[in-house]
Amino acid sequence: MSVIDQIKAKAKTQLKHIVLAEGDEPRTVQAAAKIVAEGLAKITLVGKEESIRKVAAETGTDLTGVTLVDPATYAKSEAYAEKLCELRQKKGMTPEQAKDLVYNNTLYFATMMLKMDDADGMVAGAINSTGNVLRPALQIIKTAPGISTVSSCFVMELPNGDYGDNGVMLFGDCAVNIEPNADELASIAVATAKTSRELLSAEPRVAMLSFSTKGSAKHEVVTRVQEATQKAHELAPDIQLDGELQADAALVPEVAKLKAPGSTVAGNRPNVLIFPNLAAGNIGYKLVQRLAGAKAIGPIIQGLAKPVNDLSRGCNVEEIVNTVAAVAVKAQG
Ligand code: ACO
Question: Which of these, 130, 131, 113, lies nearest to 122 by C-alpha position?
Answer without folding.
Answer: 113
